[in-house]
Amino acid sequence: MLFQLSEEQQMIQQAARDFAKNECLPGVIERDEQQKFPYDQVMKLADLGFMGMMVSPEYGGAGLDTVSYVLAMEEISKIDASVSVCMSVNNSLVCYGLQQYGTEEQKQKYLVPLAQGKKDGKLYIGAFMLSEPEAGSDATSQRTIAEDMGDHYLLNGTKNWITNGSTASAYLVMAQTDASKGSKGINCLIVEKDWPGVTIAAKENKLGIRGSDTTTVMFTDVKVPKENRIGEDGFGFKFAMKTLAGGRIGIASQALGIASGSYELAKEYAKTRKAFGTEIMNHQAIAFKLADMATKVEAARLLCLKAAWEKDNHMDYTLSSSMAKVYASETAMWNSVEAVQIHGGYGYVKEYHVERLMRDAKITQIYEGTSEVQRIVISRSILK
Ligand code: CAA
Ligand code: FAD
């Protein structure tokens, strides 16, 4: 077994590291305070080819592997998880779903600009809409209705907590067509933000990833042409689950970045801060915290890379992506709390970045399936 990145993967990692340092770090505290969407950063990510990293060049993507995606997500998330969540949703939920299950017409019309992150020089990104006020973890309980009208669907309902909700141009919306069929009555429809009947409701005021755009989106009698359905009638829930298996690799890598960013800041601080006549790293209580943080980062990274490798090798990665997500997100939380502790009072103020990492870490245990949901997926898989 070779634990070595290819030259191309190392180049992508370095490009993402440079991008995070040069483009994301300046202004990250202000964007968090002011809840400002990182528009310039996302436009530059698009120029780098990072908004459609795994999409084939035939459809405007960079044609890279999932391992490269994990490496890039980790580097960007060390600095700004509000940028990386936008990147993750576009890459692994929206572009992946369209590339894998979309028709040729859907790919030409929607995937090409989504993978490029731009259309006519303007931002063009996507959103993935599964959650509703009454259907979060219990995702089959969809209340949004896509009524079959023959040549089109009539879409009515409310989706909440939508990442990129107001900035996205194209939405992948899960909705119930035939409730009597349960999860097999759900469809996934491609909806454009500008269509009549689409309303963007209030933006959420969040604990963390405050620069990311999280809104409720409502649909009132939205006419969606039949050709905008992804897959066969009733494929929508399976589509969502299959797509989320890859999405969870993205969020696991985001959590990994928050965990490794926290560790790196804490290590540097411990080398310079003095107490009782010596650098605090020389106190074993601090050195042991750093040892645990480093070990957890390594384990989380290996889980993320294994899930990515399985995906790249066309194996079933559902179990490994849930394992990566639950472990990396719990490590992000643990490491970021310890990073604040190692910084003492300085950790509690914004200039040192670790308090933001701690606030950002929490969401990784909630979205794309809570830690409890990941344990449902894992336990069902190992016990079946
Ligand atoms: N691949 C293919 N099919 C799958 C599947 C998978 N990974 N997982 C489930 N299915 C199929 C099942 O086989 C079943 O079909 P059959 O009846 O034909 O066997 C059908 O889907 C229903 O599955 P379950 O009976 O397992 O459904 P459940 O009600 O027990 O729920 C669950 C399972 C894992 C809890 C699921 O509901 C779930 O993942 N919930 C969490 C939802 C979630 O992750 N939301 C994230 C929203 S996006 C987001 O959050 C983005 C962001 O923040 C940035
Ligand atoms: P609930 O499902 O009500 O869960 C509440 C608690 O009960 C949790 O701890 C949960 O783990 C636990 N629980 C529920 N069922 C079980 C069970 N069977 N066993 C054990 N414990 C259980 N969704 C999208 O579709 N698209 C997005 O882009 C998106 N972005 C998001 C961005 C943010 C910032 C946030 C906060 C959420 C986002 N979500 C998005 C929604 C997210 O996926 C849901 O919040 C998440 O799936 C949990 O659903 P819920 O909030 O309804 O919690």
UniProtKB/TrEMBL annotation:
<feature type="domain" description="Acyl-CoA dehydrogenase/oxidase C-terminal">
    <location>
        <begin position="236"/>
        <end position="383"/>
    </location>
</feature>
<protein>
    <submittedName>
        <fullName>Acyl-CoA dehydrogenase family protein</fullName>
    </submittedName>
</protein>
<dbReference type="Pfam" id="PF02770">
    <property type="entry name" value="Acyl-CoA_dh_M"/>
</dbReference>
<dbReference type="InterPro" id="IPR037069">
    <property type="entry name" value="AcylCoA_DH/ox_N_sf"/>
</dbReference>
<keyword id="KW-0560">Oxidoreductase</keyword>
<keyword id="KW-0285">Flavoprotein</keyword>
<dbReference type="InterPro" id="IPR006089">
    <property type="entry name" value="Acyl-CoA_DH_CS"/>
</dbReference>
<dbReference type="InterPro" id="IPR046373">
    <property type="entry name" value="Acyl-CoA_Oxase/DH_mid-dom_sf"/>
</dbReference>
<dbReference type="InterPro" id="IPR009100">
    <property type="entry name" value="AcylCoA_DH/oxidase_NM_dom_sf"/>
</dbReference>
<comment type="similarity">
    <text>Belongs to the acyl-CoA dehydrogenase family.</text>
</comment>
<dbReference type="InterPro" id="IPR036250">
    <property type="entry name" value="AcylCo_DH-like_C"/>
</dbReference>
<dbReference type="InterPro" id="IPR006091">
    <property type="entry name" value="Acyl-CoA_Oxase/DH_mid-dom"/>
</dbReference>
<feature type="domain" description="Acyl-CoA dehydrogenase/oxidase N-terminal">
    <location>
        <begin position="6"/>
        <end position="118"/>
    </location>
</feature>
<keyword id="KW-0274">FAD</keyword>
<dbReference type="Pfam" id="PF02771">
    <property type="entry name" value="Acyl-CoA_dh_N"/>
</dbReference>
<dbReference type="InterPro" id="IPR013786">
    <property type="entry name" value="AcylCoA_DH/ox_N"/>
</dbReference>
<dbReference type="InterPro" id="IPR009075">
    <property type="entry name" value="AcylCo_DH/oxidase_C"/>
</dbReference>
<feature type="domain" description="Acyl-CoA oxidase/dehydrogenase middle">
    <location>
        <begin position="127"/>
        <end position="222"/>
    </location>
</feature>
<dbReference type="Pfam" id="PF00441">
    <property type="entry name" value="Acyl-CoA_dh_1"/>
</dbReference>
